[in-house]
């Protein structure tokens, strides 16, 4: 009985630590069933483990989420080569492919850039990009207006931090959700209607974005 148990245990160890990792980029050693989830959950900073793994294994490495391998790319140049220059080859969404039947059962046919796949996704993405280019995406006009609104956001954040320091509440920190939502909404509103959001429009911004969250 003991030799059989040792044989099965050895086979499981070989499969988990060697066989299932074949053909994948190097990465941290996964634990059975939970993968590298324990390391990520134990870290106080969500992205700290990924930075450590990038320094140890290089710009491309494999992380295991449970029994699912995920290849992580951390170099900007490689990201551009993979997802821009050769984007069609890496356009698949394995996660959404698995959830597609559940989405279709609950909501019917799926549309949009986020929840579609394959040829429908390509057509939808092409239309969305063309529409955004018509509105100024990729042109100096859009960049200039975005930077203007970005500087406004940075000024608001600095004033908020200064206010917290004056009240001795610096350790409380601040949430950037409203500021980022207003930055995006203000830029879009300026393109469509010609005016950016002012400070008193923050409540209006949240009123508009809340139904979509």
UniProtKB/TrEMBL annotation:
<dbReference type="InterPro" id="IPR050182">
    <property type="entry name" value="Cytochrome_P450_fam2"/>
</dbReference>
<dbReference type="GO" id="GO:0020037">
    <property type="term" value="F:heme binding"/>
</dbReference>
<dbReference type="InterPro" id="IPR002401">
    <property type="entry name" value="Cyt_P450_E_grp-I"/>
</dbReference>
<dbReference type="GO" id="GO:0005506">
    <property type="term" value="F:iron ion binding"/>
</dbReference>
<keyword id="KW-0560">Oxidoreductase</keyword>
<comment type="similarity">
    <text>Belongs to the cytochrome P450 family.</text>
</comment>
<keyword id="KW-0479">Metal-binding</keyword>
<dbReference type="GO" id="GO:0005737">
    <property type="term" value="C:cytoplasm"/>
</dbReference>
<feature type="signal peptide">
    <location>
        <begin position="1"/>
        <end position="23"/>
    </location>
</feature>
<keyword id="KW-0732">Signal</keyword>
<dbReference type="InterPro" id="IPR001128">
    <property type="entry name" value="Cyt_P450"/>
</dbReference>
<keyword id="KW-0408">Iron</keyword>
<dbReference type="GO" id="GO:0006805">
    <property type="term" value="P:xenobiotic metabolic process"/>
</dbReference>
<dbReference type="Pfam" id="PF00067">
    <property type="entry name" value="p450"/>
</dbReference>
<protein>
    <submittedName>
        <fullName>Cytochrome P450</fullName>
    </submittedName>
</protein>
<dbReference type="GO" id="GO:0016712">
    <property type="term" value="F:oxidoreductase activity, acting on paired donors, with incorporation or reduction of molecular oxygen, reduced flavin or flavoprotein as one donor, and incorporation of one atom of oxygen"/>
</dbReference>
<keyword id="KW-0503">Monooxygenase</keyword>
<dbReference type="InterPro" id="IPR036396">
    <property type="entry name" value="Cyt_P450_sf"/>
</dbReference>
<dbReference type="GO" id="GO:0006082">
    <property type="term" value="P:organic acid metabolic process"/>
</dbReference>
